[in-house]
Design brief:
Elements (H helix, E strand, L loop, with lengths): L6 H32 L2 H33 L1
Pfam family, one: DUF6327
InterPro entries: DUF6327
């Protein structure tokens, strides 16, 4: 536990604690807003559509390569 020598030290620490409290509160608000945005139906749909499209391209590329390799072995 800290011992204070005068009221100025106490006031300084109280100001620091108040500022830290405000910073922490802003961090919570920011985290909440980011989570809320990332879980929005629009964002989820966009993410799912992007994944489906990406997987379709990978599948198409893979089948093309495998078909090419299969043709070489005939």
């Amino acid at each position: 536990m800290r011992e204070y020598k005068n009221f100025d030290e106490i006031e300084r620490d109280l100001k620091l604690l108040k500022l830290q409290k405000e910073i922490d509160k802003e961090k919570v608000v920011l985290s909440y807003n980011l989570a809320k945005e990332s879980l929005s139906p629009k964002r989820i749909f966009k993410s799912a559509a992007g994944s489906i499209f990406k997987n379709a391209l990978i599948l198409k590329g893979t089948t093309s390569v495998l078909g090419f390799i299969g043709d070489r072995w005939k």
